[in-house]
Structure formats: C-alpha cells, structure tokens
Amino acid sequence: MDPNAPSPTAAPLRVAFQGIHGAYSESALCDFYAHHRNLDPVSPISPISSINASPVLTSTTPTSPSSPHPPTPRGSVLAVPYAHFDELFDALESGQADRGFVPVENTHSGSFPEINHLLRQRAVHITAEYVVKERHCLIGHEGVELSQLTEIRSHPAVLDQCRSYLRTLLALHPHISLVQSTDTAAAAHAAATHPSRTVAALASLSAARIHNLALLVATPLHPSNITTRYYEVSPVPLPVPPRHLAPKTVLAITLKNSPGTLFKALSCFALRDLNVGKIESRPQGGAQYPWELVFYLTVDASLNEASLKRALDNLEEYVTGCKVLGCFASWTQKAGEGVSRPYGL
After folding, report:
1. 3-state DSSP: the chain helix, strand, coil percent, rounded to 5?
2. Are 292 and 286 in contact (CB under 8 A)?
3. Per-residue pLDDT tens for 155-173?
4. Which residue, 26, 16, 31, is CA-closest to 89?
5. What secondary structure letter does DSSP report for 243?
6. How many domains, the chain?
7. Is the pTM of the predicted complex or chain greater than 0.85?
8. Backbone angles phi, psi at 100, to 5 degrees
9. Which of 90, 177, 178, 297 is the most buried (most CB within 10 A)?
C-alpha cells in the first residue's frame, strides 16, 4: 500500500480535475489512483453526504464467506470537478482539495502553457506523472445511424486529432456540422441532453457510460500514438520516491541576461552526467519584463542525489530565480490491460 495514501477508514481523498464528470482527466486519475495509490474511485453519482459519512471500502481480492483471511481494505478517492484550472489550484491552496490531477502535455497538441504558469506561481508540488494513451469515441443515442446525425461536438483539439476520420465522414454526410465544446465531457452532456437525438460527441467511454450514450463507431478515430501526460499535484510535498522508480525533478528557472548563460546553466547538469530530458521556454508575462523567458527543465534525477544537489548549487551562479516544481516518479498505462507500470520497469 502506498504510504502516502490515506488510511482505509479516512474520508475519501479529494482529487480536483478540470471539466465535468466523464472528462479524460477523471478517467486517467481513477486509473492512476486505483493502481498506484491503492484507492478506489467513488462513483460520481454517489451523494456527497453519504460519501463523507461512510467512505467506500473495497477489497483487493474477492470476498468469500469461507475465506479465513479478511480482504485487504482500500481507501477511496473522490474526483471533484472544477470549471477552470485556476479554480482547481485555488481549491488546492485553500484546502478544499487534497490533490489535483492536470494534463501537462499531449503528443499531438503540445504543452499546456497555463499549467506550467500555475505550477510556477502557486504553492503546489508535482508529486507524480501518469502517461495515458487517449481513445476518442464517437458516442450518441442508441439506434441512431451516422447518416442521421446533424452535429458532432467535441473539444477543438479532439476535433483536430480526429480530422482524418471526420473528413471521410463529412464527405459521405456533408449535412453534419462540427461544433466546438469547452471539453469532451461537456460535449457528451450536450449530446445526451439535446432535444434532438441526432447530436453526437467525440469523447471517452467513461463519458458515454455516465450519460447513457452508445458507442456509434468502434474503430479508432485517430492515430494510435496520441498520448497525454498528467501531473498529480499536491499542496504539500510528498517524500522523494525511491531510486528504483527513476524519479524526475522539474525546475523553473529564469536566467541572467548575459551571453552564453543558457549553455552555462545546462552545463551544470551535463558536467555531472545528469540528463535534462526536456527543456521548454515560455515568456514570463510580468508587467516589468513580459518577454523574459522562464525555462522549465526536467532532469532525470532525484533531489536526494548528491550530483543534482551540486548541480543546483552551481546553477545559482547563472540564474535570477529557480523553483523546484517537484520530484516524482513517472508511470505509463500498460497497453491493452488498463493497468500501469513505472517507466523502465
């Protein structure tokens, strides 16, 4: 059992996500907490009052009246939706949520700049990374044929990811309109509640189940390599993961304005055989220096490693600011099994 998880008799761990129930973030967090935090998701239709009064307890093994050993109790996790990312981070800082679960990068759409900015500005810590392959489904009302559809709704990025399929579909049925939605779960909700049964959505299977919609197309609607990285974030730091989980450390730095400073900053890691697996820059956006760049570095090392500690000491010579955003383990969803494994294991 994860030592950082709440006890089975405690109230559910409140994990904030952006969107509404049925969002991809909710599906990913439920899978992550079930496999890596030993916590079972509470159904979104469960009354909040009953959840707080009596946490859901399940077992890791089937119960049997004749079994001499009682099942191992597991705690629970409650996915809490927020309309906007800044509201999610507000909830973490105010104590209304225990964790957050946010997308940080997609292999098709790229990074989520707002998340990097909030991680740097807010008093939170990255405590885990989870990598998931997305599966977009065309969902709608049972019995409706594709030729009967009048609208397909989804998030703009998902419409773009499925553009090859949609181009073929619209060539056959040009009367279908594509309508942008704030997120995929909202698109599913709109399809379920629209007066016409001819509105469909590109969304997740979870959204279909929650809104009692049917899977209209079973074949993949997009390239199979579309993957999203999520961060678990916490208002308090968690213990540094053990070395066998190959921890990563993410930094946000601003550099002194002099020739070769970026090269010198990166040499702090290179000269100690530390790999910088990712580097990204964004304008700071402040009133005084709006175009001063913030560099986000992902270093394949633990904060407990002496070499990284020395690198950070050396880095102070070249930066005007440095914030450690988190030190954490990374997991990826195992293909086809709905379970996960740490990278490299």
Report:
1. 30, 30, 40
2. yes
3. 999 999 999 999 999 999 9
4. 16
5. G
6. 3
7. no
8. -125, 155
9. 297
